[in-house]
């Protein structure tokens, strides 16, 4: 009986003495993965901020280019109102308030579409400048989406190699007058 107890005690001692090192290594890998994810999310946020600033400048230049066209002042005013409401929508966490903002946005979006179509028919300058602006803005958004998707995919793979499960967690961001889904990383298990 004493030999069995001693053997059991010795086995427990060995497990604790040598087994805890494995747990420490696992914990270190988990910490590395979590730090990696935090760093990549910060990088994604930085890329979003840079793209947003570039888009705001692009939109400002576009407004400057079209302001002399008859009827463009009303269009610019509507676009500014739309942009303000979209910023509020992105920041809103309460779903009822977000729905209220969406309801406020709908008629502005419709009026903007009508105004843009009317101005394009009346002015080839407006049509050309608008086409150029939209093309540049879409290219900027596409580049941001591709870059952040690559960052996310690589970080998810690296985290998985360190034993941490992560996934894309889409985030709504405002780029000029457009709302775009970008994909930061969220930990789902480790």
Structural notes for this entry:
- With about 190 residues, the chain is mainly α.
- It has one domain.
- It is built from 4 helices and 4 strands.
- α1 (about 1-65) packs antiparallel against α4, α2 (about 70-90) packs antiparallel against α3 (about 95-120) and α3 (about 95-120) runs antiparallel to α4 (about 125-160).
- The longest helix is centred in the first third of the chain and has 65 residues, at about 1-65.
Helical amount among residues, as a percent range?
over 70%
Strand neighbour order, sheet with most strands: 1-4
Classification by helices and strands:
mainly alpha
* Quaternary structure state of the chains depicted: single chain
List keywords for this structure.
two-stranded antiparallel ribbon, 190 residues, mainly alpha
Give the SSE map.
Elements: H1 2-66, H2 72-91, H3 95-122, H4 124-161, E1 165-168, E2 171-175, E3 178-182, E4 185-189
Antiparallel strand pairs: 1-4, 2-3
Helix pairs in contact: 1-4, 2-3, 3-4
Q: How would you summarize this macromolecular structure in one to three sentences?
A:
This protein is mainly α and 190 residues long. It has helices at 2-66, 72-91, 95-122, 124-161, and strands at residues 165-168, 171-175, 178-182, 185-189. Helix 2 packs antiparallel against helix 3 and helix 3 (95-122) packs antiparallel against helix 4 (124-161).
């Amino acid at each position: 009986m004493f030999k069995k107890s001693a053997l059991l005690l010795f086995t427990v001692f060995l497990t604790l003495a040598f087994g805890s090192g494995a747990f420490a290594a696992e914990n270190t890998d988990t910490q590395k993965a979590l730090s990696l994810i935090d760093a990549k999310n910060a990088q994604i946020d930085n890329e979003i901020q840079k793209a947003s600033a570039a888009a705001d400048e692009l939109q400002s230049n576009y407004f400057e280019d079209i302001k002399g066209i008859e009827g463009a002042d009303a269009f610019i005013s509507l676009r500014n109102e739309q942009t303000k409401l979209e910023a509020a929508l992105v920041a809103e966490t309460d779903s009822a308030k977000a729905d209220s903002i969406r309801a406020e946005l709908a008629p502005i979006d419709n009026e903007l579409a009508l105004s843009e179509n009317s101005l394009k028919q009346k002015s080839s300058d407006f049509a050309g400048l608008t086409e150029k602006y939209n093309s540049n803005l879409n290219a900027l958004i596409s580049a941001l989406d591709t870059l952040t998707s690559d960052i996310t995919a690589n970080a998810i793979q690296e985290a998985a190699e360190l034993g941490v499960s992560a996934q894309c967690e889409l985030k709504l961001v405002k780029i000029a007058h457009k709302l775009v889904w970008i994909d930061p990383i969220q930990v789902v298990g480790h």
